[in-house]
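WARN retry 2 of 3 for item q-0093 after timeout on previous attempt; input resubmitted unchanged.
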Amino acid sequence: MDKWDVVLAHLFKERNNPKAQGISLGKVISGLPSLSVSLGDEIILDTEDLVIANRLYHLPTVLTEGDYVILVPAPNGQTYYALDKAGE
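OK item q-0093 returned
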């Protein structure tokens, strides 16, 4: 069995070094200008949580409920970049 101080150091290391989340898809709950996107079952991202790419404002087809957008998390893990509408 490991010494208690080694176990504690390991726990601190895991807490302070979370694994980076990669690119993901978010499902549009409400479209622009008040974009709201669900990320999984429990996370809802609103315009305050999103940096929205300019191209999303100028798509030939409007983002509507049920569409998917490509999301990339910022290093802080609290903000996401909405890059584009996902293809069908």
